[in-house]
Amino acid sequence: MDIKNVVCAVILDHGKIFATQRGYGEFKDGWEFPGGKVEPGETPEHAIVREIREELNTTVEVVRLLDTIEEDYPKFHIVLRCYLCRVKEGRLELLEHEAARWLDAEHLYDVEWLPADLDLVREKVEDLMDADSEGNLTAAGSADDLTNFDREDNRMDSGRRDARTGISAKEKVNRKEDTHMKVLMINGSRRERGCTYTALSIVAEALREEGIDSEIVFVGKAAMDGANALSACIKDLKIKAAGADGFVFGAPVYYASPSGESQMVLDRLFGAAVAELRCKPAAVVTSARRAGTTSSLDVLAKYPTINEMPLVSSSYWPMVHGSTPADVLKDEEGVGIMKQLGRNMAWLLKCIDAGKKAGIMQPAAVEYNATNFIR
Q: I need a labelling partner for 375 at 20 to 30 A (CA). Which of 28, 33, 153, 268 fits?
């Protein structure tokens, strides 16, 4: 059974607990404490700070670990680390959830908690709320200061618009439910879960927030295991490429150039899957300890731009720095670049999808006579 490591934030204010309602997915409409998955190379403490920033546009400070709860769901086993947090900066805004409420002890069970969160409520939160009745544990201001409410039912307004995107939480939910697109990411590193994987994972998370699925395919081993393994890898990638709507090609830097493994795969793939790749948006990503990133990006960009693939950019050249995944996560600008790259990819994919629905198709392939510099 698949094991999911996740984190949640228990935010208290004068005996009231902050709860959020899922807006999409398998557990839509269930109530939970805000949080999400721990990414590879990420500590749980870092994950909860990142998740609350992404979901609620707020910076929290971890006070302490409250509990670790394990729960079996039909398709997976969850390991939930629960942290008592205080609001450090910002106001809790709904960027992903359908709704949210501050619940006092009297109304703690008025909502339908998801199983793991219900265990936490029963085992820890009830006593915690009693202890925080005077606001001694985490208070950073009143609940009125920290959130925006509909006074009638103590709910946050999920129709508030994200300051960055101008999209309300409900609109995001609807977009996620209506979108069925996928981005294929190729990890050309020799290390399956190293720095390149970490960069691609950040892009994948940004895509997920915009309702776009993704898959990271590790090709480094196949490239080094001989001709048969490489041929099988290319055959598999060709099949996956046919069903993908966009691509991200990632590679680490070796001697100021993309890894040899990544170039072996891309050389073969772009010869074997021209039709499967053509006119689909692509992005390139590289990782390095120190230097060689810009020259490597130049090499990687040559592949999609020879096959009529729109090249997706970010707020800076798409690179991250560090010797380990943990280092990459400390590269704040690099992390931000990867997130924006994911958002830009999602935007372009949705624009293309909208164009197709309006009857605007991609240009037809044109045959041309190849020439050289002599004739």
A: 268
